[in-house]
Amino acid sequence: MAGWSRLARRSIAVVGGVAVAAGVVYKNDPQKFHADASWTSNFEPSVKWDHNWDKCEPASLVKPSKNQNSSEEKDAKDAENELKKHTATATRHLLLIRHGQYNTDGEEDSQRYLTELGRKQAEYTGQRLKDLGLSYTILLSSTMTRAKETADIIQKFFPDVPRKETDMLREGAPIPPEPPMGHWRPEKQFLQDGSRIEAAYKNLFHRADASQETDSHEIVVCHANVIRYFVCRALQFPPEAWLRIRLNHASITWITIRPSGRVSIRHLGESGFMPADKVSVV
C-alpha cells in the first residue's frame, strides 16, 4: 500500500458475535509519528481520547487570522509558522514517588514521621532513581512531614537537583470513589481536597512547552491518594476509580507525556527494586 508501512499489529476481536480483524497502520513520516486504526468494521470506541486535554494542542493556541486582504498563500504560511512556534518537540517524564512507611499513630502531621523501615525504603528508591541514569530537572514534594522526609533522603542522591515544596500535593480525599469506601467522610472534605488536588493535576500535567528542547524527568514525592487520582486523570479513566489502585510505600509511578499529548504509564507503583521483606503498603 503506497505511503504506508507494513501492518505492524494485527489481532482478532469478537464484536457482537462477529470476528473482526483489527490492528494499527503506521504512516511513514520522518517528522511525525502517526497511527490510524485499521478496523475492518465500523467499530467505535466507547470512550474517545481527548487530544486537547491539557489545552496545549498547537491549533488551539494560534489566534485565527482576521486579515482579509492577505493572500491565501501568505495566510497558510503564517498559520504554519504560528503552529510551529506552539508545537512541542520534547517529552516530559513524571516520576511520582509515594512517601515511605510512617508512624500512623501520630495525631498531627509532625508526629507522622517516617519509621526506620520508611527511611530505608526511601533510600532504596533514591538508589533506584540514580541507577536509572536519568538527568532530573526538579525534585518536587508535598509539604507533609512524611513526604518531606522521603524527599530529603532521595535528595542525598541528587544534591544538585533543584528542590521545591508545595501544599497542593498534600494528601487528601480527591473525589468520592466508586464503589464507595468502607468508612464515611463528609462531603465537605471531598469538595475542599478535591479542588486542590485537581488544581495540582492541572498545574503539573501538560505536554512540554514548545521552548523545551530536550526531554525532562521530574521527581514528585507525594501521597497515595494524590498519585492514584493523577493516574486516572492522566489516562482519562473515570477519576472515581482512584481507590481501586494500590501503591506500595516509596514506590515509583512513571508517567510519560509525549509532544502529541499522548500519555502512557511506564511503571505503576514499582517497588521490585526493594527486598521483599522491606515492602509495605499501609
Question: What is the fold's blueprint, element by element?
Answer:
Elements: E1 4-15, E2 18-27, E3 35-37, H1 58-61, H2 72-85, E4 92-98, H3 116-131, E5 136-142, H4 145-155, E6 163-166, H5 187-204, E7 216-222, H6 224-234, E8 252-257, E9 263-270
Parallel strand pairs: 4-7, 5-6, 5-7
Antiparallel strand pairs: 1-2, 2-3, 4-8, 8-9
Helix pairs in contact: 3-4
Task: Summarize this structure as a short list of keywords or feature phrases.
26% helix; alpha/beta; 6 helices; Rossmann fold; 282 residues; globular
What does this structure look like?
There is one protein chain. By secondary structure, the chain is an alpha/beta fold. It folds into three domains: 1-44, no CATH class; 51-87, no CATH class; 92-278, Phosphoglycerate mutase-like (Rossmann fold), CATH 3.40.50.1240. The chain is built from six helices and nine strands. The strands form two sheets. It has a six-stranded mixed beta sheet with strand order 6-5-7-4-8-9, with helices on both faces. Strands 1-2-3 form a three-stranded antiparallel beta sheet, with no helix packed on it. Strand 5, helix 4 and strand 6 form a beta-alpha-beta unit. The protein is globular, with a radius of gyration of 22 Å. 26% of the residues are buried.
Going by CATH, the architecture of the largest domain would be 3-Layer(aba) Sandwich
The main sheet comes to: 6 strands, mixed
* Number of continuous helical runs: 6
What topology, given as strand order, has the largest sheet?
A: 6-5-7-4-8-9
Fourth CATH level, the homologous superfamily of the largest domain = Phosphoglycerate mutase-like
Which CATH C-level class of the largest domain is it?
A: Alpha Beta
Number of strands: 9
Q: Which fold name is given in CATH as the topology of the largest domain? A: Rossmann fold
What level of helicity do the residues show?
25-40%
